[in-house]
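Q: Fold this one first, please.
A: Sequence and structure below.
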Amino acid sequence: MTEPQPIVFIIDDDISVREGISDLLRSVGLGVQTFASTQEFVNSKRPDAPGCIILDVRLPGRSGLELQQSLGQLGIRLPVIFISAHGDIPISVRAMKSGAMEFLTKPIHEQELLDAVQAGIERDRANRQDNALATELRARFDSLTSREREIMSLVVSGNLNKQIGFQTGLSEMTVKVHRSHVMQKMQAKSLVDLVRMADKLGVSAPKAKT
């Protein structure tokens, strides 16, 4: 499946800045959406595509920093590149500590901005792939029966089939059948593979029966 065109969201109250950056990004084949305020951006319908945000620090209404700090609550995971004509150290430090990818001061150097945008898109692309894999892994785990989940947790904890049989009251042959089903449903190629999956899912060993 072809990936949708990457989109860069530009949030700046200066129309000349928005237009200048838009022209630059479109010249290298990127999609662009522009906003004069953070509220406009929040209210907008964003396409499901990899991208990043170019965000001015000082804006009317909610500032760029305030928007950055609320992105997680809004369910927006896009990387942020800050731009500012007021590149004072305290603001840039706060921005970077809050997870900003880059802090660029105006006038913006074109290649520096393009490099930052490309890095932001690549980070978002990687995050989206990780999230898709995590969703798929959870769906596989959800397809297991409660008994298979119990067997899986015992297997990844290092128990042998005989030990699992003793703990569950099942025959060793029945344990082998359940274990095979777990490997197939989880699409695990080896025990090591299954252990890694369990770790990502947060699957822990069941409590010992008393």
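Q: Good. Now the second chain.
A: Here it is, same layout.
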Amino acid sequence: MLQVAHVEEKLLESGPFLGMAQGVQTDRVTLLSFDINRKVLQMGTGTPGFVTFAIWEPNVLFSWRNVKMQSGMIGVLWNKDHQSITGSQFSGIPISIEENYFNNLCREKGYQELANKIKKSEVLYVSELELKKIRRLVRFIIQDNSLDEISLKRLIEGELLDQFIDCLGSALPAKSELDLTHSKMNLIMDYIHDNISNLSSLNQVSKGTHIPERTIRRLINKKFQVSPKQYLNKLRLNEVRKGLILDRRNSSIFQVASDYNFWHMGQFSKDYKNLFGELPSKTIRNRSGE
């Protein structure tokens, strides 16, 4: 059963009324898509414990709590009475997020002040370009009936909310993109270096930092001009080299390499030589002065 705001619609335009609504949800997020063919007044209340963002297709009349909405604007409904006027052929895609979950996401992503700002706002001004991406992704999620429960949750609570909170964050003039990038990058780097011996995939970094793989991939690629896979591989190779040089147990190359999740020794040796210009065996010989 979808958790949605309680809304009553009053028709303000003559003619047959046609409305269509679709929706999907996880435990913490509800997505809706609805289309209305006539001008109506909508009144009601938000879903208890949730914050709802009213996203709409521009170029159609939309008045939100007495504010005439324009391109790049989002309505906010958080424990308040709902009132809006929607013109004929209106399309809306409200996103409702569980309040505590939303607060935690904001903090994790470096937007500590975002939740408090929204509580005081009825309307947010954001990037219309980013809103277009959000609309497309929401409609894809709702309309794709092939998604299983796990994929649906990952897509909604991962990719969609990552994009959406970044979009909302752009409404905060005091928080620069440079500050946000620096905060995320520090979190990613700290996690990688603290867990390098156990890392073999980007998914592990994403789970450990609660930053979507897409964001991690973009930040690492921008900073280092290599893919995250290449970056992690190079870090692990460096740790193996350090282990071979400092090893006092006379461990085998395989033992040291496997400590950093290298199991295919042929590929490992090739990658090692490409990075350091010598085979692991040569590193050991140099260490022992042979």
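Q: Anything worth noting on the second one?
A: The chain has eleven helices and twelve strands.
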